[in-house]
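Worked example 2:
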Amino acid sequence: MGVNIDHVATLRNARGQGHPSITRAAETVLAAGADSITIHLREDRRHIRDADVAQLMQHIRAPLNLEMAATAEMTAIACHHRPAYVCLVPERRMEVTTEGGLNLVALSHHIQPCVSALKAAGIKVSLFIDADDAQVQAAALLGAHAIELHTGPYAAADDQHQAHALQRLTQAAALGARLGLRIHAGHGLTFDNAGRVAAIPQVEELNIGHFLVGEALWHGLDAVVRQMIGVICSAQQVANGPIDHVHST
């Protein structure tokens, strides 16, 4: 499991000082059993800042997954720091949070140079996409190492539509794996709904952030990360048999 700590930075930025520390947050979730740290360096720097990327690269001994837009500026930053993973995501200045997956079918000509530059720098590239067969196929053609399936529609669906949304995720994961892609997933996942995504056989990693940071207000960051890992492990054990730990790529 990767833990997104963006909103620890959001809280820090409310006062413009150094508390709470995102490095301490990263160390806490890793000590609780998380496999990696995810941060989104947005073009408007609304939470994570450039110095945060440098600090985390220097101080944490775990893979860093840098979410970013496919722009020349962000590509240069990523190639300078060389995190383990870059996850390319769509980004609009006015959105509150990521609203959907990349449209790789329409934007492959724009995204391909970014993917190529990142791979040349030794960075594994993941593409955040909706659970759509055409997008999965486009990701494979772009040479991505992994896809991260957008679980927001599943998480937001009512009981009547959630099974269909889960089926779309399951189908996309199976197709991606057949095409040689590693399968990640994330967005909007909670204690109540993460298990069903974790039980999809091809899903190797979940990235979860906002929910965990919110729950930490009541129960502490260490406790909520451990609880989420328990949810994921239990779901995988039921689906696939006993496992030793949450798999990380």
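The chain has one domain: 2-240. The radius of gyration is 17 Å.
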